[in-house]
Write a structure and sequence with these properties.
135 residues, alpha+beta, two-stranded antiparallel sheet, 3 helices, 20% helix
């Protein structure tokens, strides 16, 4: 027993930044939480497939950018060489998942780093859907 005056240690006051310190067990994966998508965010488009009924999609971000680039390119199509973007194949994959018909044509290229690349051609009719009709 001590004789009277005990002082409470204020660790946060003594060691600034202590409350932000933490330990992580070895080999424990850190799983990021998905950001919640805003309700009704994005641009609506009317897609007219070569076979079947027209339908409506809503796209945003890079997927929307890629869809606009494909629309502008028309029958010529787009390549990652002519339209640089970090993940063309991912944008095309996402649009295909929504039902947009996009053809991939494999082309060879020469130069310092010869190889091949994909040319993406929009085969569905796509137009902005400002009315926002139902599917």
């Amino acid at each position: 027993m001590s004789g009277g005056n005990e002082v409470t240690r204020n660790l946060l006051g003594q060691e600034p930044g202590r409350k932000y310190r933490h330990a992580t067990a070895a080999d424990t994966p850190k799983i990021a939480h998905r950001k919640a998508k805003r309700h009704n965010s994005g641009t609506p488009y009317r897609v007219t497939p070569s076979a079947g009924d027209p339908f409506r999609i809503v796209v945003s971000g890079r997927d929307r950018w890629a869809l606009e680039e494909l629309r502008k390119a028309g029958a010529k199509g787009c390549t990652p060489i002519d339209n640089p973007a970090p993940r063309w194949s991912a944008y095309v994959f996402n649009l295909r998942e929504l039902g947009v018909d996009i053809e991939t044509i494999t082309e060879s290229h020469e130069g310092v780093f010869p190889g091949h690349h994909g040319r993406y051609v929009l085969r569905s009719g796509v137009a902005p859907d400002w009315k926002g009709g139902t599917q």
